[in-house]
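FIELD: query
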Amino acid sequence: MHRRLFLTTLGVTAAAPALARQTQPPREANPQIDYGGFERLTGDVRQLRAGRLLPFARFKKRAASGDTLLLDARSETAFREGHIRGAINLPLPDFNAESLHALIGAPGRMILIYCNNNFSNHRRPVPVKAAPLALNIQTFINLVGYG
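FIELD: result
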């Protein structure tokens, strides 16, 4: 019995990457999930993000200005271990309309975001991640999605 359970579990694990490559999303039973809206939002973000990327020198200059919000979207633990001076921490899993509004305030405010973006020193609190996952795209998508 244990051997059969192990093999079944192994089969499910091995199938997981194939499930991620499905081209048709499964029908959602939850009306609070909008897969089509997610596809539209994430499909549009590449060009929008490209137009807003800053070279590091400009990032540092903007971060030093008093009217810019420097947002650290890493975990609270990583933030406590080390962060850029003046940064405010709001972990990505905690993003929602209310938390972002409370943090950002007025629309139109300059926001600079950083998270685990594969810095060259590969030390805690920003260890190197898999390259396709190292961008702050999830954070950016959330900020765009919440307006």
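FIELD: remark
The two ends are 52 Å apart (CA to CA).
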